[in-house]
Write a structure and sequence with these properties.
The chain is α+β, with helices and mostly antiparallel strands and about 240 residues long. It is about 25% helix and about 35% strand. Strands 2-1-3-4 form a four-stranded mixed beta sheet, with helices on both faces.
Length: about 240
């Protein structure tokens, strides 16, 4: 596992702390950070280290690792890859008018994209996203029997509610491909995600089965990519 240089880790910690002014900590919703990655990409382990540091650093960030599948034909099939993750990344490319998709790519709060291994840039983007985030749409995600109760509060605008299941940490020995011989430690590996509701400003309440993964989260995303609300089960 490649660790973050101490200076980069310190910058991330300082920026993540600054992202939450003391008076606003109780009201601000988490900032969504998405890393598009693959175990078959030799440039991705440093980005995995950045995501791990972000995930462990502050409670005001939901950091998720989406594993794309377009590296799977090049020597190593990522066991966490999915066509849905690739499609999500391509959707961002379309909305942001990018010429192509790439790994490792990080998207912060649905609006800012950067090279995933650039820790200082990630910290700056998180700070900027926190400062620019509008008042969140209220979201609730609670256990109900064997499943989940999902509530989206009333507000202004429109968006899609996404339910995500993820594992907080996974360690994988890589046997082939560009990372052959390495063992990669990965944070908040997305195991499943699905759209559960289209929101048009009115309150929505529904039930869903627990998604695959050790933890669950819910976020609301506007058509232009903006994140309107984020919550974690048990958070």
């Amino acid at each position: 596992m490649r660790l973050l240089p101490a200076r980069v880790a310190a910058l991330l910690a300082a920026a993540l702390t600054a992202a939450l002014p003391p008076a606003a900590r109780a009201a601000d919703r988490p900032i969504l950070v998405e890393l598009f990655t693959s175990q078959g990409c030799s440039s991705c382990p440093p980005a995995e280290a950045v995501l791990l540091d972000i995930a462990k650093g502050r409670g005001n960030v939901l950091a998720l690792g989406f594993h794309v599948d377009y590296w799977d034909r090049l020597g190593w099939k990522d066991p966490f890859s999915s066509p849905a993750a690739t499609e999500r990344q391509r959707r961002y490319a379309s909305v942001m008018r990018l010429d192509q998709v790439y790994t490792p790519q990080m998207v912060v709060d649905g609006r800012r994209e950067l090279i995933g291994s650039d820790g200082p840039a990630a910290a700056a983007a998180i700070t900027a996203a926190n400062a620019a985030a509008p008042a969140p749409v209220p979201l609730r995600l609670t256990r109900e029997g064997e499943g989940l109760a999902v509530t989206i509060g009333a507000g202004r605008g429109a968006g899609t509610a996404w339910l995500v299941g993820f594992d907080p940490q996974r360690e994988t020995p890589i046997r082939r491909g560009e990372n052959a011989g390495r063992t990669i430690l990965q944070a908040n590996v997305v195991r499943s995600f699905e759209s559960v509701a289209e929101w048009r400003g009115q309150e929505v309440a529904l039930r869903r089965a627990m998604p695959p993964g050790e933890r669950a989260a819910l976020f609301l995303q506007a058509p232009d990519g903006r994140i309107l609300g984020v919550t974690l089960l048990g958070g």
